[in-house]
Amino acid sequence: MNAYFWLIPILPGLAAALNGLAPKATGRMAGHLAVLAMLGSLAISSMALFAALTAGHAFQPIDIDYFTWIGVGGLNIPFGVYVDQLSLVMMMVVSFVGSVIFIYATGYMHGDPGYVRFFTYLPLFTFFMFLLVMGNSLPLLFVGWEGVGLCSYLLIGYFYDRDYAAAAGMKAFIVNRIGDFGFLLGMLLLFWYTGSLKFTGLFEAAPGVFTAGGAVITVITLLLFVGATGKSAQLPLYVWLPDAMAGPTPVSALIHAATMVTAGIYMIARLNPLFSMAPVTLLVVGTIGGLTALFAASIALVQRDSKKILAYSTVSQLGYMFLALGSGAYIAAIFHLMTHAFFKACLFLGAGSVLHAFHRDTDVDVFEAGGLRKYMPYTRATFLIATIAISGIPPLAGFWSKDEILWEAFAAGRVFLWFLGILAAFCTAFYMFRLYNLLFSGEFRGTEDQRHHLHESPAVMWLPLAVLAAFSICIGCVNMPLLGYTGFHDFLHPVFAHGAAHGAEAVEENAFLASSFLSEHMLEWIFAGISVVVAVVAILFARVFYVWFPNMPERMREAFSSIHTILFNKYYVDEMYHAGFIQTYFNGCGAANWFDNRVIIAGLNGLANTVRGLADRLRRIQTGLAPHYALGTLAGMVFLVVVFLLCY
Amino acid sequence: MIGLYHFLILSGVLFSLGVLGVLLRRNALVVLMAVELMLNAANLAVVAFVRYPMFGDGGIVNAQDYAAMTNGMTLVFLVMTVAAAEVGVGLAIVINLYRQKKSVNIEEANALKG
Amino acid sequence: MQIQVPEISLWQVLPELIVLATAVGVLASDLFVKSVQRVNVTLTATLGLLIAFFTARSLEASATPIFAGMVVRDSLSILLDQIFLAGAMLVTWIGHEYARRNPRQFPEFTALVLFATIGMMVIAMSADLIPLFVGIELLSLPLFVLAGSDKDRLASGEASLKYFLLGAFSTGFLVYGIAFIFGVTRTTNLTVIGQSLAAHAEATPLLVLGFALLLVGLGFKISLAPFHMWAPDVYQGAPTPATAWIATGSKIAGFVALMRVFTLPDVSFAALSDYWTPGIWWLALITMIIGNAGALMQSDLKRMLAYSSIAHGGYLAMAFTSGTRIGAEATLFYMAAYLLMTVGAFGVAIAASRSGQECEKIADLSGLARQRPWLAFAMSIFMLSLAGMPGTAGFVGKLWLFGAAVQAQYYSLALIGVLTTLLSFYYYLRVIVYMYVHEPDDRLLFNRYSFSNGLALTVCAVGLVGLGVFPNLLWSTIRLCTGAV
User: Fold this and answer.
1) Which CATH number fits domain B4-106: 1.10.287.3510, 3.60.21.10, 3.40.50.300, 3.30.1360.40?
2) CA nearest A630 in B: which residue?
3) What's the whole-number mean pLDDT along residues A312-334?
4) What is the C-alpha R_g of chain A?
5) Omega of the bond prior to A464 within 30 degrees of 0, cis?
6) Measured between CA atoms, how close is C96 to chain A, in angstroms?
7) Taking CA atoms, what residue in C is nearest to B86?
8) What is the pLDDT of residue B58?
């Protein structure tokens, strides 16, 4: 079995190479080729998972070095895979959700002029994604990290003839560079201190090199977390993800919901022995996660574009995962990552199915839709299932994972995080059912011409939806602590045991929990009950607002117009960034403005302007006249002589 | 008594004249000559260093001085040869400039910039 | 008086002689054969270079200078000979494609490339300032002519004029520097200089002045700022294969000269490193900033590559300044990687032509991916490697360059390097975006490109990915030769 691991990334890589290098030869078969490659990867991953499950506690992480990748001086980085329970879960998510989305995409992209190009980028993306989750060293993870970023950048700009698509691609690229810079610095510092970048070597060296809770490990993990906020769209670097919806819908589903954006969560979970040693970092991670969860969910409440709503929802759900990581509940985070992959992919593909019915590429105003249940029964059914799942209604998948996160946060003494989470859960259930009601309930509000064209998507599209919906229902059953079954938890436990043993006491005990007269199990039930009640109330609200009293939203909007405006404009963050980056440059900034800039993203603005100014001045120095160049040479000589004599 | 530093100062003056010529003159042929002046300034310095060593009694008295002299003279001859080759190539390039622009003013060649 | 005839061991400079014979043969064929077939010229040159390459491989390294202490056949020079010969082969191949569209003076073109190569090889084996100087001239004079070889194009004439005038100007500084160093040390032999300096390391003002002047002369060759100003104009104006050889061969040779003169322990000025390091430190800093800032706003492909090449000179100088063994190794490795990616990028510029006009603006590459996917893919590899994307030789090389700087505790230099590298992603990725994302403005199709050009690009691309994934292939050889030194 282990001998075939290398095939998992290579298969999609080959498909990408074939489609990219011989587009004429593969032609209409490009999609099928990609699907075939993904199914191959899925088969191998499944066999690996099966082998691990049958081995049970006897399962040992597999660490294969294929060859020495970089070997010089103290730096020795092998090229190899590290497959433990965590990688297996990620591999399954990527290959399974990937396969389903690939199949869907063959239908969705059918007849698009860029069909082959699309099926070059998408397998290439999965190649890098596999590299990311399977690599056995931090540099290899980084290769995957950059690779998926590149593919995402290319796919966001897929409809390159539209300005906003190109601009969105650029935005994603620049924001991610900021994150990557932190990641790279963190990586270099790690190497500096431990002398190793292989995971096994890192984890062995870390307890000896770093003191738990010390400044060094805190700085390193914070830098790595900066990378994670970029890739996984957290405050303050989340701004690229909503714009990234400019890409085709299968891309949004696979890259910007199910897999790539979870890379930051995977990275932190993978490096849990390091993060467990830095309680301050964990506090920051959890707080950022909780704030992002609520912040993004509140924006989603009033958006009008279905994919935008789902995008903010993704940002919010990713926030939940970081909240869990910050509470030391790594397994809960990974669990939510998995369930989220299924129901969010289902939601995106469902939204794509609606777009398909409207013959649009990217956006449909939800107030133009409505009543689609009559025209698209399969899409409606699967969308409803996924909506219930994300809202946290038992026994669907989302309930189990979200509830575990909230409970773990509370149990870890992070009561304020629990509070943020429960507020976000209310918003989530509300905006999701708002979206569902606006799309599928009531009467159709669009034009007669549009109504005429409405149709259910072909089977190649709704069958994947059905598969994802089925998993959204039942995938939660791998871990049901309320009912006393914790299979998923037990499976992943060995990955995180090591870190827990060496880590600082990352989280304090909850005083309430310790003094409570209720048993812990009872409390768990009560908290689950609170979550469910909150969700149900939110769903009823959505029903009242958008189905029973359709003029309510209008009245509410008038009553709370200022709040609505702020939310609808996404707290003006884009505008603030715009003002911070660009506007002040033109206005000539006063001291206060300057301070604002510094607060938002310090110095970056200034750097960009300096560079541009320098570049401009350089062009003017380069006059084209040879004597001026000779003068430059002479100036250089004088400079050198001065430097030399000063040092002499 | 004429010594090493007299020659070095002369060489420095020649070199500076060459540099100024390159910087200030616009005629390509004159610039070419200015460059030759720089090379000759260097040659003069080398010859002076051979004749008046910086350390020691001066003159060519022992085997070491003799070795230094051969070494220095080889350098001087090669610099002269190279200067001649450079002029050969340089004139061809200047002729090409004249063919294209009907002028040997180097400021005419300013299309490439930025 | 007894005249000593120095030991002549011609077989140790056999690779140089073979290249010389090939060059003369190619040139002479024009005289004796009525209409010279381009294919035959390229084949002859390739054959000659291949023979020279394998001759160089078979030579045995020895640290003892030969030809009366003028040159030395150490493993460093043997390795560099191979790099130069391989580079010359690639340039000949892309030049073959170029000549198809500009058929005049083709044999001269190839011969001049070969003559310049000899100059580089002479620099690589110099153990004395005299052959070093002669090698630099042997390299420069053919390149001056090459830059102007497209006689009817105004830009080409202008490029050669500027290149020549500024090159000759900087030669003046170089020779003056050598004169001062000769005056203080009474010899031009680097071995003797190195040994006497190692014995009692002290610098006189005149010697330090000599260093500065020498650095000006060599800084011109490797286009360190502020001696870089000729580079963008010349790269843009010169015929593209000539540009490729100016950008790579000449720059690498310049660094080799710096290495021979300044950093090799015991046989250079290494003992006085305290005196000359600050100068190169500052030049490296300015060069990294100016090169990257300059490339940022360019719309002309060759001009963008020119600034990018300046920036890479800055990175190399940064590692070089460290003066450590790892710095030397990193420099050597990066030189090889730099050769492949730069020749490759210029090769694509030649190959991606429409109706006989080669690609000038970056925007001219629009739609390349659709029509010539392999060209676009190869160009992406070159750009990503130049940017330092993991998986390519450019990444590994940069990692070591920065590592060397950090090891030498040049933190600010390394930081500026990393920041400018991040900046550089912008203009390199822009090229990829044009190729893959933009549609061409007009519907003109890209021409077919010849086999030789395709071969050169494939060799470069495969080499870059190969070295990026298996850097040890070259690294072990490099370690051998720095270990021997």
Assistant:
1) 1.10.287.3510
2) B23
3) 91
4) 26
5) no
6) 25
7) C141
8) 62
